[in-house]
Amino acid sequence: MSPQDKRIKARIYHGQMSGKDREESHRSFIRDEVHVMVATVAFGMGIDKPNIRCVIHYGCPKSLESYYQERGRCGRDGLAFICWLYYTRSDFAKADFFFGESQGIQRESIIESLMAAQKYCLLTVLARVFRRGIRIQ
Q: Are residues 41 and 66 in the same domain?
């Protein structure tokens, strides 16, 4: 096998691309012409592809509902998959800043969603620490 054969075919997808480029990225991913798609959250909303094996999230989700929706893109064919979530505590401060203009009940609802996402992230990490050395099926 030549070094060129070992290359991973990848594309990008984001809102600032031309419609033609977004369409081409989407088409090539759906047809398995590329193996990795680096994309914004918007890309995943239209994907109904059964053989996605891995989704990597960068940044804490705005809510648990959106996280479950995004990670739900994996393993639709029933085979094994993995979903990674990378975040920092500063993600929560940024989110609070971005939703700072919201008022009243809307703001309370947004903060409640963010707190649930933060709690999920922290408890998941702690659970992994406490389970270290134990084989988890």
A: no
